[in-house]
TrEMBL record:
Pfam families for this protein: ROK
GO molecular function: kinase activity
Organism field: Glutamicibacter protophormiae
Family statement: Belongs to the ROK (NagC/XylR) family.
Name of protein: NBD/HSP70 family sugar kinase
SUPFAM superfamilies the record matches: Actin-like ATPase domain, Winged helix' DNA-binding domain
Keyword Nucleus: no
Gene3D superfamilies, sorted: 3.30.420.40, Winged helix-like DNA-binding domain superfamily/Winged helix DNA-binding domain
Keywords assigned by UniProt, alphabetized: Kinase, Transferase
Length: 383
């Protein structure tokens, strides 16, 4: 990832324009090495980073003073002289709060460690609140998670439906009734903690890419309150000119009109493939139709509509891995098969030997883990 969110500079970490920027880049470089490789000595860090030992020693002092790095013992390697002291990221002493607003029935939050593992979960049932009332629910949920933390919190990460700018402002989120809502600022000021907000599908693809089975050329489609996708091309997350890349939910599918959408149009893919829409369709089983047959029919229809939207995108971007994520009860093998068959019928993509369509292995936590990735990047420079 080369872009940042939240209250940090959007300057690429690969370049520096001021001496202070260069120092932050070097600090992030050391944290990146430790995060990826585990405990290392100062000499190891010097060799792997290319920085001098004097520079390494100076940077390590600062990282230890910040509480980001700790000494974890001595090296067992057989070398002449005094054993080297090993350093590591403070994995046990730092925690992240992740917030997932993607589900249509419940808001979720969690206390997480730096490896994306959920330590404590909290949930808040939603009541279709809109506007300020929905924002108040986010604050209430986050407060419960903050209270459950047992170590220092380095930041709060939020994954939400809607179009989210790089500085955490939600331009529009129809399902919450939000327009131009600076959710990042609200949460940051309420808890006095660094806060980073990302679109839920963008967060999900970050989580899958970092902790799951993602690749450098992947798309993750998130089904929840709406339908969105996050895309990574050549290892870089695609954002778009207006931070609206991946907003699939309000693309009209076909010319047969279809149900009315919350946005006022008819036939948006969200009216077929969002979780509330699938749930409503499953509840409307015609008399005399077996439940299993009805379930298969609903999933096939939702998968076909979703596949129609995805087929040209997958083909144009030459996606290698397409991942579907959402509640396992609804985002299942039948939906997966319908998406795969539709894409196969409409493109030549499926004939490529390395193209895959699969379900996320950890759909329940994928937005939470993506929110954690966003915090790690913005607060520690770990990508």
């Amino acid at each position: 990832m080369t872009s940042t969110t939240g209250n940090r500079s959007t300057m690429s970490r690969r370049t520096a324009s001021l001496p202070s920027h260069g120092r932050e880049l070097n600090l992030a470089l050391l944290l990146q090495h430790l995060y990826a490789q585990g405990p290392m000595s100062r000499a190891d860090l010097s060799r792997s980073s290319g920085l001098t030992r004097v520079t390494i020693s100076d940077l390590v002092v600062e990282l230890i003073s910040r509480g980001h790095v700790i000494e974890v013992g001595t090296s067992s390697a057989s070398r002449p002289g005094k054993p080297s002291i090993l350093l590591d990221i403070n994995r046990q002493g730092l925690q992240i709060i992740g917030v997932d607003l993607a589900d249509s029935a419940v808001m979720r939050a969690a206390v997480m460690d730096l490896n994306g593992n959920v330590l404590t979960r909290v949930e808040l049932e939603t009541t279709d609140e809109k506007g300020e009332a929905a924002s108040a629910q986010v604050i209430e949920l986050t407060a419960r998670a903050v209270q459950a933390a047992t170590e220092r919190i380095i930041g709060i990460g939020v994954g939400t439906p809607g179009i989210v700018t790089d500085d955490g402002c939600i331009l529009t989120a129809p399902n919450f009734g939000w327009t131009d809502l600076d959710l990042r600022q609200q949460v940051c000021e309420h808890f006095n903690l660094p806060t980073h907000v990302v679109n839920d599908a963008d967060g999900a693809v970050m989580g899958e890419h970092t902790f799951g089975s993602g690749s450098a050329h992947m798309m993750l489609v998130k089904l929840g309150r709406g339908v969105g996708c996050g895309t990574i091309v050549n290892g870089t997350r695609v954002r778009g000119a207006n931070a609206a890349s991946g907003e699939l939910g309000h693309v009209i599918v076909g010319t047969d009109q279809g149900p009315e959408c919350v946005c006022g149009k008819h036939g948006c893919v969200e009216t077929w493939a969002s979780i509330p829409s699938i749930r409503r369709a499953l509840a409307q089983r015609p008399e005399g139709v077996a439940e299993a047959d009805h379930h298969s029919s609903v999933m096939a229809q939702a998968g076909e509509r979703l596949g129609i939207v995805l087929a040209p995108i997958v083909s144009v971007l030459d996606v290698q891995d397409l991942v579907l994520a959402g509640p396992a009860r609804y985002v299942d093998d039948k939906l997966l098969a319908a998406v795969r068959e539709t894409i196969s019928a409409r493109t030549n993509t499926s004939q490529r030997p390395n193209f895959t369509v699969q379900l996320s292995r950890n759909p329940d936590d994928i937005v939470l883990r993506g929110a954690a990735v966003n915090v790690l990047f913005n607060e520690l420079g770990v990508a």
